[in-house]
Each structure stands twice: as C-alpha cells, then as structure tokens.
Design brief:
Layout lengths: L1 H17 L9 E7 L1 H6 L9 E7 L17 E3 L9 E7 L4 E7 L11 E6 L10 H4 L4 E5 L18 E2 L2 E3 L7 E5 L4 E3 L13 E8 L4 E11 L2 E9 L1 E8 L1 E6 L10 E7 L4 E5 L2 E6 L10 E3 L10 E10 L5 H11 L6 E7 L10 H7 L3 H42 L4 H5 L16 H4 L12 H17 L14 H23 L2 H33 L4 H58 L1
Antiparallel strand pairs: 1-6, 1-22, 2-5, 3-6, 4-5, 7-21, 8-11, 9-10, 10-21, 11-20, 12-17, 12-21, 13-14, 13-20, 14-15, 15-16, 17-18, 18-19
Helix pairs in contact: 5-12, 6-11, 6-12, 9-10, 9-12, 10-12, 11-12
Length: 602
C-alpha cells in the first residue's frame, strides 16, 4: 500500500516536473515544434546531424523589446527543458522586429515522441551563449552566410576567402546575401580541410536568385590533377561541367524561375556526380571525379570570366556526400515556403500552470501601431460611456420632474388659470418677479429640473408683461391681441429649442464613436496586416503558422472598434427615444398652455 501511494505521488509530480521552468532568471519561453506529420507526408526524416532555422518576426514573436542587447539572453533547450543546445544568431533586428537563429538539433530528435525545442529569453543580466563553430557538424568544412561581418567561414575550420569583390546585398534568402554583378567573385584558398575527394564524398550547396538569363555564369568551380568541375547557369538552366580528359555536361530538365530563390546542391561520391535543384534530383553523371585540390572560385571562373549576375546565399561545403533526404530537409527548412516549425505562445512562470487564453495570446501579437489605435479607441470608449451614463441620469431626472410638474399643473382649474395674475405673496422673495408663479406653487425650486416648468415660467413672464397694470390702478380685464399671443408662443418656442439643444448636447460624441470606432479599428487591422506580411516577406517564412498570430493580433483592433461602437449604438438609440418623449411632452404643453391663455385673454 505504501509503495502504491509513493508511486501515485511520483505520477502526480511528473507533469509538474515536465513543465518545470528551466531557470527563474529567465522571464519568457516559447515552444517550437517540428511538424512531424508534414515530414512524413513528404517522405522525409530528420537527418542525424541537422539544423533548425528559427525565424522570429511580428507574426510569431512580440517581445523583441524584452530581449537583452544582441540577444545575449537567448537560450535554446531540448524538449526536456534541461539540455542546452548549441546555436547562433545570424541576424537580430529589434527595430524591424525579426531574428534568424540557427540551432543544432539533438541527436535523438528524429525519434523523439515530441520533436520540439524551447527558446528562453528575458534576462538582461545573461551573458552571450552563442557557439557558431560548435553548431556546425564536423563534416561541414565551410559555411558562408554573407551577413554583416562579411564573407566569413562560421565553421570551426575557419576557411575564410583570400579575395572578395562581391558586395553585401539586401533581401537575401536569410538576412543578407552576396551580390554579384557579372565581374565580381570570391576566391577561397585550398586548405587541408577543404580537400574534396570522391572516395570520401563531398557536397556543395547554395541558394541563388537571378533576375535575368545568365551567360554560362559560374557558381562554383574547382580543379584537380588533370580535371575540373564547374557548376554554372546557362541561360536559365543549371549546368554541371566535368572535364576529365573529355568534357561531360549535365543540365537540369527544368529552368529556374526568375526572381525566386532556388537551392542548388552538387553531390559527389566514388562513382557518380548528382545534381539537386530545390531538394529534388535533377540528374546524375556516372563518373568517378578526381580529387579537387585547387583554390575555389565562387561567382566566376579562375580567370575572372563567366561572371555571375545575381544573389548567392548560404554557401556550404561538406566533406561527405549528403543523401537526398538531408538535401531535401535543408531545402524545406531554409526555404521561403518553410512550414516545418510551429511556434507556440510565449509564456511566463506565472502563466505556466494554468496556461494562457487565446485572447491574451492575440493581444501579445498586437503591434505598436495597433496599440496606438486601440489606445485611441479606449479613450473613445471611456468618453462615450461617460456621456451615456450622465445623459441617462439627466433624462431620467427631467422625465421625473416633468411628470411631477404635469401632475401639479393638472390640478389648476380654468378659473385659477384665468386669475393667476391677481395673486401675490410678498413674503416669498424668490418670485417677486412673477406673482403668477405663486398661484401655482409656493416653492420655486420644486420643479427646477423640469423642462416643461421652464417653458411654463417663460410663458407666465411673457403674460405678466402684457397683463401688468401700471401704478396698481384697477381696471377691467385686459384683452390681448393675436400678435401678443404669437409673441408669447415665439418666446416659449425659443426656450423649447434651447432646451432641446441642452438635451442633445454631447450626443454627437456617440455618433462619432458609432461611425468612427469601426473605421479606426479597421485602420489598425490593415496596418497590422501590412506589418505582418512585410515581416514575413523579409524573414522569408510563408506558412499559416507564421501568418496566423499576426493576423489575429491585427484583428484585435477591429474587435476594439466594435466594442466601442456597439454599446454606443444601443445607447444612442435608447437616449434618442427618451429625448423624443421629452420633446413631444414639451410641444404638447406649449400648444395646450398657449391655447388656454388665448381662450382667457383674447
């Protein structure tokens, strides 16, 4: 029984141990999962020594501002969240919000039940843990990525070029690229590590983009004792030339597409030479090549002729023959249509236990431009609700006071109405300007909130001016002309108009919120979508997983606009109905009051 209890406790602790936070010094983490079903669908497996290219942008990562300087706080861990993985950052641009991180996958990644890695960040005190040389496999002897440091070998072999005339070009496959104009080239001196022997096998791979047909332009060329191998572009076709006493040539069956990045790979072993384009075999030559021992020419031949015109990126040489699976895996991992990695939501130690709602996840993907729009909508939301609440209170009070006044007004008899002018009360100093009011009420403030009472007050004052008897001389009851009664009505109508202006004051703010809120939200969404697609275009990652978070964040602005507009729409219609009721009551009172006065004094 005790053993059973101990086992139960262990089983209960397993989930918490599996999701334990790697280090309390790091504030955020993100899970990145390999799309195993897609790999299986494409007939691929994860190579034993392979890399993962993590592309971070606004579509899948929103905490660039929380990264330490130059990303020194970034750590990559295996699925167990305990084993650190070797990695290096090819480019980190916090301003434009993008990053390219290369990670050496663990050896058991291909057979893992959950093929995933974790990226930890958010520790300003961390020291840089990048290890570019250690990230590359020992069989890779040259790696040029043509980034800001220039043309530099990132592997531990340090096979740097001896001469470089190419320039740094923007818009590479991954970050920057090498730009060639037809007369530029790169020369790499021969070193023991760069010996290319067909007995051991070798592989040369690169990515290129051309915008015009090439004049048999050299991409890679190297020679050995009595022969050489050239990888070139003839027109729009990839060509491999082998000179071993006689010249043999291999051409790809499908031309390259202009303005699109393509992967080229040339693989040699003891008895054949194979060409791959975009991870797919483009043919082979059944020959045994010689050892290649000369300097390496990139972008032109050894004489500086046959110059390439276009962009090259991710140039690599291996001292082994990569198989078709490894080449295609690299093509899909590095390509612009890469969809092998799925990016999870960012989490913190506080959110680790209960997880995070999808809504909160969408909010984290809102861009700064979107937050500005949402901030404006937040101000509109507060102002519109203040207007609706205050206006509802005012209208409720007005309606209550109007009913109170109407109830008192109905108690007046026709005789009282006709003789109001004769009554006075010298003790009430508040109403000495209108003795007529004293016949109606002894408390002037009792109906101060009633719009109908204010109409009544104006009408009575106008009548008092016309019925006033100078020096208190008594006389017969005065008769007013039709023009006088029209003047009384005009004064009451003017007061009614002013009261309506007061009742409708600030209602225009609700109409602005109703019509402007959704459009502001739409503006935020459009800007967010533009930024998302721009970031994806730069990063080169085109798949649903890259687009969805950014689109979800962008749509948050539209949701905010609707949250502002919908309550305002209902509130405006309700308040408008209340104002119409008050308006109708005032019109009815003016007509009724003037009619009774006309009956008595005309």
């Amino acid at each position: 029984m005790k053993r059973f209890g101990f086992l139960l406790i262990v089983l209960m602790l397993i989930p918490s141990l599996a999701s334990a936070w790697w280090s309390d010094d790091w504030g955020y983490k993100k899970k990145i999962t390999l799309d195993a079903p897609k790999l299986k669908q494409d007939g691929l497996t994860v190579p034993t020594a392979s890399f993962a290219l993590i592309r971070l942008h606004t579509g899948n990562f929103t905490f660039f501002a929380d990264l330490a300087d130059k990303g020194k706080d970034i750590r990559i861990l295996a699925a167990d969240e305990e084993t650190p993985l070797k990695f290096y950052i090819e480019k980190l641009d916090v301003i434009n919000e993008m990053a390219f991180i290369w990670v050496k996958l663990p050896a058991d990644f291909a057979t893992a039940a959950d093929p995933a890695i974790w990226i930890y960040y958010g520790n300003p005190k961390a020291v840089d843990a990048q290890d570019a040389a250690g990230t590359f496999d020992v069989n890779q002897v040259l790696a040029y990525e043509f980034g800001q440091p220039g043309v530099k070998d990132l592997t531990a072999y340090g096979n740097n070029p001896g001469e470089v005339t190419s320039t740094l070009g923007e818009g590479g496959l991954i970050a920057e690229a090498a730009q060639f104009n037809g007369s530029q080239f790169i020369r790499v001196p021969a070193t023991p590590s760069l010996q290319m022997s067909p007995a051991a096998g070798w592989t040369v791979s690169t990515w290129l983009k051309i915008d015009q047909a090439q004049n048999n332009s050299v991409i890679f060329q190297r020679s050995g004792a009595g022969g050489n191998i050239t990888l070139s572009i003839l027109g729009e076709t990839v060509s491999v030339e082998v000179e071993e006493g006689s010249k043999q040539e291999l051409k790809s069956p499908t031309p390259l597409v202009m303005g699109v990045w393509h992967q080229l790979a040339l693989v040699a072993n003891a008895d054949s030479l194979m060409l791959y384009v975009d991870g797919v075999s483009a043919g082979s030559l059944g020959i045994a090549t010689r050892d290649l021992t000369s300097n390496i020419s990139i972008g032109g031949d050894e004489f500086g002729a046959r110059g390439f015109n276009g962009l090259l990126d991710q140039f690599a040489i291996y001292k082994v023959a990569l198989d078709a699976n490894a080449i295609k895996f690299d093509s899909q991992m590095q390509g612009q249509t890469s969809a092998l990695l799925t990016y999870g939501e960012d989490s913190t130690p506080d959110s680790e236990e209960g997880g995070e709602s999808l809504i909160m996840g969408s909010l984290k993907n809102v861009t700064m431009d979107g937050w500005i729009i949402i901030g404006i909508l937040g101000v509109m939301f507060v102002v519109s609700w203040l207007v609706m609440i205050i206006k509802a209170i005012v209208l409720s009070r007005v309606q209550s006071e109007n009913k109170k006044f109407e109830a008192a007004y109905k108690k007046l008899t026709t005789d009282e109405l006709g003789n109001l002018n004769s009554e006075e009360d010298e003790n009430d100093e508040d109403f000495d300007e209108s003795p007529l009011l004293l016949s109606f009420t002894k408390k002037h403030g009792a109906f101060a909130g009633s719009t109908i009472y204010r109409l009544y007050h104006v009408g009575v004052e106008e009548m008092n001016r016309r019925l006033y008897k100078p020096n208190g001389v008594p006389g017969v009851e005065q008769v007013l002309s039709a023009q006088s009664m029209n003047a009384v009505r005009a004064s009451m109508d003017a007061t009614l108009t002013r009261e309506l202006q007061k009742l409708n004051a600030q209602m225009v703010l609700l109409t602005i919120a109703i019509s402007g809120g959704p459009f502001l939200g739409l503006l935020g969404t459009v800007i967010g979508v533009m930024i998302t697609f721009a970031a994806i275009a730069v990063s080169g990652e085109v798949n649903v997983n890259a687009i969805a978070p950014g689109i979800a964040g962008a749509l948050t602005a539209t949701v905010a606009g609707l949250i502002v507009a919908i309550p305002c729409l209902f509130g405006y219609n309700y308040l408008g109905g209340q104002i119409k009721e008050v308006t109708a009551d005032m019109h009815v009172f003016v007509d009724e009051f003037v009619a009774k006065l006309s009956e008595q004094h005309t």
